[in-house]
Amino acid sequence: MSKIPYKLYLTEEEAPKAWLNIRAFMKNKPAPIINPGTHAPCTAEELSHVFCDEAVKQELNETDKYIEIPEGIRDFYKMFRPSPLVRAYNLEKLLDTPAEIYYKFEGNNTSGSHKLNSAAAQVYYAKEQGITTVTTETGAGQWGTALSMAGAFYGVKVKVYMVKGSAMQKPYRKNVMETYGASVTPSPSDTTNVGRAILKEMPDTTGSLGCAISEAVEEAVSTPNTRYLLGSVLNHVLLHQSVIGLECKTALDKYGVTPDVVIGCAGGGSNLGGLMAPFMADKLEGKSNTEFIAVEPASCPSFTRGRFAYDFGDTGKMTPLIKMYTLGSGFIPSPNHAGGLRYHGMNSVLSQLYHDGYLKAKSYEQTNVFEAAVMFARCEGTLPAPESSHAIRAAVDEALKCKETGEHKKILFGLTGTGYFDLAAYDSFNKGTMTDYIPTDADLQKGFDSLPKVD
Amino acid sequence: MSKIPYKLYLTEEEAPKAWLNIRAFMKNKPAPIINPGTHAPCTAEELSHVFCDEAVKQELNETDKYIEIPEGIRDFYKMFRPSPLVRAYNLEKLLDTPAEIYYKFEGNNTSGSHKLNSAAAQVYYAKEQGITTVTTETGAGQWGTALSMAGAFYGVKVKVYMVKGSAMQKPYRKNVMETYGASVTPSPSDTTNVGRAILKEMPDTTGSLGCAISEAVEEAVSTPNTRYLLGSVLNHVLLHQSVIGLECKTALDKYGVTPDVVIGCAGGGSNLGGLMAPFMADKLEGKSNTEFIAVEPASCPSFTRGRFAYDFGDTGKMTPLIKMYTLGSGFIPSPNHAGGLRYHGMNSVLSQLYHDGYLKAKSYEQTNVFEAAVMFARCEGTLPAPESSHAIRAAVDEALKCKETGEHKKILFGLTGTGYFDLAAYDSFNKGTMTDYIPTDADLQKGFDSLPKVD
After folding, report:
1. Which of A32, B219, B342, B429 is most open to solvent, judged by the fewest CB atoms within 10 Å of its CB?
2. Minimal Cα distance from B8: which residue of A?
């Protein structure tokens, strides 16, 4: 066994040729998506008014363990994948821990995050189906940027509804998307019925992912040859993100390393779901005893304080119902600096796994998270996104625990992206003006009150 | 010979262990740096008041073809190197050219550019010498960020004078440097004699690299245990940047590819000097016939409209004199969007090679450059820095020429960095409000009038 290098790259030939479908490995499958009116499981036909046909097929596929990645998508992946898996030697040294720390860095592309993995796939399928325009929402801006890049590459028009709070915090994100030819509308906007209704009720709202989803869905279903693409939460997104974990596994296997702990930040769940996919598959098959930790912001604690219930994916209550850990689609989180984690719900696969004890969760306040972010930036070089820094915080704490116990754990975490568009947040942390926000039980109750009644 | 992959990565083991010193290959050596008072060549002792001892030694070394990279620097390099060499298949397809286009991408690190290569080396040597604080200037911000990162890594304090125009255009750059623990002062400032003098004469100036250098040098020479580090122009910087070209050569050699044309943007010259180093060495030894092109902004045309003369490196006339292509240290370029290229002079090695016909040069206006930048972003994914986009423009034009002539030229260019902090510039291009600026002969004459008299 040779010494493990700082960066464990794979060659083009070693890159995954199929995604891993984690549902096919689960005994307890996630509950089906249901129609909010009839409460019957949604059919492919129903879903295909909103989503592309291939996305729907993948969304409903619970049986195929592996699904081939078409060459047209692998060609796009070659531009930014395989992404580096890094052994965090410098962080280990700084923490003086016996643990080995690894992170998969998904930020080395202009979208600045892992979102491009699913954007490439979804726009490719849209193009194949003859769709000319796709609509979407974006929070922190990474998903919107990723989709704009994919749209420019495959030649499909992209219309982005961007959460107003993020659009104000990060005007340059809008400029990037426009440079790739997309059109960007701050949400809630007056261009849709649902947007106008939300604005009427809460004229000063800074918006939420839930609102923006509603607007993008409305435009997709009411415009010919247009479909809606979602950047997280759904199972086909999780499927596409499995490329992250598959690359990790191939790289780690070369050095005989099996992670003891896999850690990812969790907003809608796609990054963590992708990172852990092959390792969770091994665990579900009884081949390993790896521990999995979802990390979320204390201001939006879907797992740690949410309910396991059927809920809408959006604030406007336009989507089908998904069984998930949720704070209620009516919950509007405080405008913290991890825009990508401000989502009320959680992917249904992760929710089921959490419910069944395969996955743990913890939450952190943002000042604590930024402390870890700055420490990481200074010793490992890369300035991390606030979202990713939740995973850094948890990985650091795990490594410090090993220092106490003397355990040589192997810790793998997902560094989903860079913080180049989050400098206002870093500035407020550096100046000591950053504050924390934890919702009260009463705040949460308001969200729970918005949950639909399903037997 | 296997098919050339999209990205030609090297392993850690294949990474260069020595830099290439291009002067050792030149018959006509660059003229020596001279003392502005006596006009005698500067001694190591004189220079060491300003620069670190090892930097001075390297600056004056004209004989060693290779200089070993210390392990402490190679450890830092492992965090972001080897950088990808990319075959621009998508760009080739879009242009429908028979040419092969390769680019070396140096932007995959938080400084966003190649500057980290020399920052790592210089701060390492400062630390070894027991220096506690280093000062520097920064234009576009990449060099300042790189130095801040190296300062955080090695534990050396960093004080950055940032060109005021850039500081206003890019407030977030300041936040990044501060996150890495550096202090940042917009230049000209009232904290130095030279800054106060410049402000008195031109209270509304947006500053220049030349001004900022003067301030940083003044602070270094007047403060104990402090040295000044420069991000370009000097020969030891060029030396450190040779790691770029050496990686390219190792990667291309594997596939039997020798570039016919090597293209780099040129401000102070370090990126181009580093990229072309091993290829120019081959040419100087008669082993190849590669063509080399320096690309500069029409607004700051040191090569294409400058004079080959001894000049100061800074506006405040505090530095030794360097024989170079220059517009005169009194020339203040218009505030265009390629801050890193707004420098009046050019490295002396490149100047000598240009003078001797080994290197060509051309200049472009910025709207033309941004056109190429957007085209590149949309097909190759990465949003390029305005500086790097000068090289893209020239490479595209070269490839289009091949389309006319049917030549299968192999074109290599340097993609020095990303444009994530240049979105205001992209926004003005997207909106059609970007303007061009070409200095008149009278503008240039003002700069030439500032040249010192040297026989």
Report:
1. A32
2. A11
Are the beta carbons of A90 and B79 separated by less than 8 Å?
A: yes
Q: What is the CATH number of the domain that holds A276?
A: 3.40.50.1100
Residue B129 falls inside a structural domain: no
How close is the nearest chain A Cα to the Cα of B418, in Å?
8
Evaluate the CA torsion angle B205, B206, B210, B211 in order and state its sign. Answer: positive
The parent domain of residue B303 ranges over 7-14+69-112+234-448
pLDDT at residue number B2: 61
- If you measure CA to CA, which chain B residue comes closest to A78? B6
At CB < 8 Å, which residues of chain A contact B?
5-7, 9, 11-12, 78-80, 90, 108-110, 112, 149, 152-153, 171-172, 175-176, 178-181, 374, 377-383, 418, 420-421, 423-424, 426-427, 430
Do the domain assignments include residue A23?
A: no
Q: What is the 3-state secondary structure (H, E, C) of B286-317?
A: CCCCCEEEEEEECCCCHHHHCEEEEEECCCCC
Q: Are A342 and A208 in contact (CB under 8 A)?
A: yes
**Is the predicted pLDDT of residue A2 greater than 70, yes or no?**
no
Is residue A61 a part of any domain in this protein? no
Tens of pLDDT, residues B342-362:
889 999 999 999 999 999 999
| Nearest CB partner across the interface for B378, out of A109, A181, A426 | A181
Q: Nearest CA to B146 among B233, B260, B229?
A: B229
User: What is the number of domains present in chain A?
Assistant: 1
